[in-house]
């Protein structure tokens, strides 16, 4: 992790929801390494293999500062559970990463997105609001939005001021709704809040439902991979360390007191890769870590509903306010992923 630890205030208590998830795990690991008190919450649902979520938690409980980590299994859609945590631990910094992720799954199973992403987020906002009753209250709420809010926008790179009124999946609609809800709570109750539009995050201990991960699995098993839109897709892939560095810089810098204390930032690489080049780089990384010849068997298919052709982050606002821009190349990032992947699954 290359996050700048000096940015973190170790006197605060940090609540991370989705702490057994990919990004939540790496953030918790970074905060603990710095000596911060971390309360982690996750419902450990089985959207993807629970054993990987458990492995991430095991890593957090075996880390040097594990005594600073408290894990609570529960659902943010359960208001009583959320309120109990806020009352017991009085977190000053709240990072809401718990959500039902994935664009395609929202077409099959929309209900779970409403539960976790809308009701769950509402419960977090309410708990932040009530944290001010008789106490100092939450100093900064940071929450995950997504590049998917840009929908099928044609103008690239995607900038925070662009119109995002046309989400093409329910997942995207819930993330855009989170931004609207957070804005209202900041306006009405002065809760300092920052929404982060993450762009396709990848890396070690990543998410098995994402293409780079499922491709790796299929490639290693000798099964064909499905390449949508005949490979004519472009993604701004962002390495996990860059995401964590960005989040850490933002945590201690809530929006200033003037006006509504709500801001939204893109965190992406500002360097979209063509899907076919991405696959070639993944093949190389897997070949390098296994010492074998690797060539994916590709099955070309048309575009999938809900998918977007191209994502590309305009990171000028992030650079201006936090002096930071993601920069890890996919050659470097995929190699680090492949090293972890082939070792974890013993290929
Ligand atoms: N990884 C990406 O590329 C990416 C891109 C854009 C946005 N995001 C957003 O970033 C956040 C973190 O993503 P991730 O990649 O780490 O996903 P993840 O699925 O690995 O992590 C989310 C975690 O939240 C937990 N969770 C889900 N619903 C919950 C609920 N109702 N109560 C408690 N826990 C719950 C899950 O068990 C999981 O461990 C999510 O909000 C996601 O939508 C991720």
Automatic annotation (TrEMBL):
Transmembrane segments: 12-28
Enzyme Commission number, as recorded: 5.1.3.2
SUPFAM superfamilies associated with the record: NAD(P)-binding Rossmann-fold domains
The entry's keywords: Isomerase, Membrane, NAD, Transmembrane, Transmembrane helix
Domain named NAD(P)-binding: residues: 15-334
Enzyme category, top tier: isomerase
InterPro entries: NAD(P)-bd_dom, NAD(P)-bd_dom_sf
Any one GO molecular function term: UDP-glucose 4-epimerase activity
A Pfam family per the record: GDP_Man_Dehyd
The protein, known as: UDP-glucose 4-epimerase
UniProt organism field: Sporotomaculum syntrophicum
